[in-house]
Amino acid sequence: MTTIDIATPGGPIDALLDIPEGPGPWPGVVVVHDAIGYAADMTAISERIAGAGYLTVSPNLYSRGGRARCITRVFRELLTQRGRALDDILAARDHLLGMPECSGQVGIAGFCMGGQFALMLSPKGFGASAPFYGTPLPRHLEETLSGACPIVASFGGRDPLGKGAPDRLRRVVEHHNIAHDIKTYPGAGHSFANQLPAQPLLRITGFGYKDAATSDAWARVFAFFGEHLHAGG
Description:
Layout: E1 2-6, E2 13-18, E3 26-32, H1 40-51, E4 55-59, H2 67-80, H3 84-97, E5 102-111, H4 113-120, E6 129-132, H5 141-144, E7 151-156, H6 165-175, E8 180-185, H7 199-204, H8 211-229
Parallel strand pairs: 3-4, 3-5, 5-6, 6-7, 7-8
Antiparallel strand pairs: 1-2, 2-4
């Protein structure tokens, strides 16, 4: 894994780059972090995706200015569905497409806040989208997902932010005839696939890591990406 700079409309930002072992080219995946931002957890996720044979770039959406100011801005851009954060993610996609190691197919995966971005940007030149508990779902979901790529979504049944989200998402993707795999893990909460600090407290509040749900979700994601990101999808 290396740290690189990515050119964006708002200036360069830093990102994590993971290149799989062995001969390429490989499909690419843009990984969008949660509200916490870069941490050891995101490094492990990037390495997992690269280990499955995907060229992986994780843009740092908090590259500009102080952390608190960045968080406020990025969440505002989630609501408006425009701004630097969206530009940064699309720039990460373009960076992958410009690499000789990339096969020309790029997916997107995101967690919590990043899952919302993964849904929101699924019509924007990606071959497949994997939102993990992207709740609350983006506003104007019917319009937002018009023309979206195939979606493999994972939710926690104990997620206090996600009540009704899986069913609502399923209705919209079926209405748009979008290929999909949507699954809810009954015993899991929000952030079930992130190994964050303070796990005992997180579990009490309906959050927290769940190994079995995480393993199953990644197996589904990689099977779905294998179908839609290899050999042109």
